[in-house]
Specification:
The chain is an alpha/beta fold. Helix content is about 25%, strand content about 25%. The radius of gyration is 17 Å and the shape is globular. The mean pLDDT is about 90.
């Protein structure tokens, strides 16, 4: 049976190679009532205008996008940078809600003129540099932030798969969570207009926890409100 075109359509942007995290993100969005499509280099056109956007994790953003030279050896993906920057341009023009995950959170910041720590591993003091796929890292949420209202808590168990982090914030962004080393773990837009949230962890691997599932539901709800009312009421998550 064909899916109804009346349902919200959320695009998930990622690499050309379709990885398991993309499957989990789409699963979480569908469980929240949305249709999904996948956009990547070479496959950049959705079947119809999208109602919201998720930018998944993956390769490092090339530092030229924030006026720096590479300071480390890393895997870059210029085509993916191009596609996802264009999607964020469209999201801003159309006031589409956006969820950024890991690389996606960093790209939200860079797109708004911010920059990144290219390697935080030697800067850690209170957290271990090893990667954690389970929720063994504690993050503290900013009181009264949109993210704290979505997750319904002030502290959260999260995973950690990144070696870069947000440094200087982009325009009209605020910190929504930090870790024990005070590195930014989440950001969100401020003021009226657009619903954008970026988290440094990977909630798609933590769908067994209701708080992480609520993040995807909140995106779908924001997309539905935008379609229904022509804008997103930022007072409601």
């Amino acid at each position: 049976m064909a899916e109804s075109s009346d349902r919200i359509l959320i695009a998930v942007a990622g690499p050309r190679r379709y990885l398991f995290d993309i499957h989990l993100i789409r699963l979480a969005l569908r469980a929240s009532g949305a249709r999904t499509c996948y956009l990547c280099p070479g496959q950049e056109t959705p079947p119809r205008p999208i109602d919201g956007l998720v930018i998944a994790g993956g390769d490092h953003i090339h530092p030229r996008h924030y006026q720096q030279l590479p300071q480390i050896e890393a895997r870059f993906n210029p085509e993916r940078d191009r596609v996802e920057m264009a999607l964020l341009d469209e999201a801003r023009e159309r006031s589409l809600p956006v969820l950024g995950i890991c690389r996606g959170a960093q790209l939200l910041n860079v797109h708004r003129g911010g920059n990144l720590h290219q390697n935080i591993t030697p800067m850690r003091r209170h957290t271990r540099p090893r990667r954690l796929i389970t929720a063994m890292q504690r993050v503290r949420l900013t009181p009264r932030s949109r993210l704290s209202r979505i997750l319904r808590r002030d502290r959260l168990g999260a995973n950690r798969l990144h070696s870069q982090a947000i440094h200087a914030l982009g325009t009209r962004l605020r910190v929504a969570a930090r870790d024990a080393d005070n590195f930014v773990q989440a950001i969100e837009t401020t003021g009226p207009g657009q619903w954008q949230v970026g988290v440094q962890w990977h909630p798609e691997y933590l769908l067994y926890h209701p708080a992480h599932r609520r993040l995807f539901s909140a995106l779908v709800n924001a997309a539905q409100r935008r379609r229904t009312f022509g804008k997103v009421d930022l007072r409601r998550h």
